Structures are given as C-alpha cells and as structure tokens.
Amino acid sequence: MAEHTESADSKVESVIDRISEKIHGHDSSSSSDSESEAVKPESPSSVKAKIFRLFGREKPVHQVFGGGKPADVILWRNKKISASFLVGVTGAWVFFELLEYHLLTLVCHILIAALAVLFLWSRVHTVINKTSPRIPQVYIPEDPFLQVVSALTIEINRGFAVLRDIASGRDLKKFLVVIAGLWVLSIVGSWANFLTLFYIVVVLLHTVPVLYEKYEDKVDPFAEKAFIEIKKQHAVFDAKVLSKIPKGLLNYKKKD
C-alpha cells in the first residue's frame, strides 16, 4: 500500500513537473519570440522605399534653414513676427523704390523729428516739474553684431574657397554651371536695381519655403520627374559637346 502511494505521488509530481516545464517553455518561447521580433530587422518588403526629396535633402525644411529663430520667421512659425518683418521690408521698398525716398534723407528726417520731440518734451517737463526729464540712454550691444560679422566672414571665406576650387580647372562641368548661373544673374540684375532684387529675394524666402513645406508630398514627385529629364538632357549634352572638348592640355599640366 505504501509502495502504491509512493508511485502515485511520483506520478503526480511528474505530471506537475511536465506542466511547469510546458508553462516555462511557453513563457520562454514567447519572450524569445518577442525579443526576436524586437531584434529582427524589418523585411525588405516592409521597409518603405526611400522618398525623393528636392535637392537631396534628408532633414526637415525647418532644419535645412538652421532650425533657429530665422527658420521660424521664414516658415511662419510665429505669424506676427513673420508678418511684421515682411510688412517692414515692403514699407522700406515702397519708400525707397516707388516714392524714390533716399536713405540718407530718411535718416535725417527721422533724427530731426526725434530730436524736436525730445527737446519740446524736455522744455515742457522742466517748466511744469522744475526738473529736467530723464532721457533713456540708448545702448546697442556688441555681441550680436560680432556674431553676425563672424558668420558673414565664414560664409564669404567659404565662397572664396568654392570659387578658387572652380577656377583651378579640375571640374569643367561645375565651371560651366557657375558661369551659366552668373550670366543668368547678370541678366536678372539688369532688369531691376539691387533694392528691388533684395526685396524679391525676401518675398520668395517668405513664400516658397512655407508653401513647399505644406505641399512637399506633391512637389517632390514632380521634381523627381524633372530631375530625371534634366539628367537625360545633360547626358545628351555631355555626349555631343563636353566629350568632344580636348583634354590633352589639362592632362599635360597635371603631369607637370
């Protein structure tokens, strides 16, 4: 009877051990499956094809423009500041271009008006209160101007380095592209003066990027087709024109 009881207990224990092993095996398999799903890379079919972006950009439009306050102004993140800046530039263009107001004349008139108002206010305040008014001191901080000058210096030096690389004769295609761009820019410059061109550039910077950011999913496919067509035409131009330009002289100079 004792042997029967022991055998029954051993059977029960074996059954419990099997059940626990199944439970632990299921848990470990599920955890390993979840870990494998987390570690397993996505299949090629699930990976979304790389989307063509204008000018090959990989960052958002806001990051392309620096991601700071200038980018916020250009992309109308703060509509009041962007609108105020655009209205101010438009007013300056109307003053100097349409009304033919000169900058020196405008500055002198503003100073005359400011000095006259402050002088009259000082006299009235002295007569009424028997004391001279406290005119606030105007102080322009030095750091912002130094930062702007430093940034402009870096960009100008970078432009000089690019021009030097182009003038070295290493890349004929880049040279022809730059010459064509400068020629087009000279034609555009003959249509209007510098102030009008500057105003056009400011208006374009405040309209084109924000519209592109809003409709980039529609613009990028069209731009992709345009770039494919441009590459085809460039290949034809390269085969018919650029490939026939003799390069022996350049190779001879490089050997020397």
How does this structure look, described?
With 256 residues, the protein is mainly α. It contains eleven helices and no strands. Helix 4 packs antiparallel against helix 8. The N and C termini lie far apart (109 Å). The N terminus is likely disordered.
Concise structural overview:
It is built from 11 helices and no strands. The chain has 256 residues and is mostly helical.
Sheet/helix structural class: mainly alpha
Shape label: extended
Radius of gyration: 36 Å
Number of helices: 11
Euclidean distance between termini CA atoms:
109 Å
Task: Name the average pLDDT.
Answer: 76
Which residues sit in consecutive blocks of at least 5 with pLDDT less than 50?
A: 1-6, 26-48
| SSE ordering | HHHHHHHHHHH
Helix content class: over 70%
Strand content: under 5%
Counting DSSP E segments of at least 2 residues, the number of strands comes to: 0
The biggest sheet amounts to: none
Compile the SSE list and pairings.
Elements: H1 2-39, H2 61-64, H3 69-74, H4 79-98, H5 103-129, H6 143-167, H7 172-191, H8 194-205, H9 208-214, H10 216-240, H11 248-255
GO biological process, one term: response to bacterium
Subcellular location: Endoplasmic reticulum membrane
Membrane topology: Multi-pass membrane protein
Which keywords apply here?
Reticulon-like; transmembrane; transmembrane helix; membrane; 256 residues; Reticulon
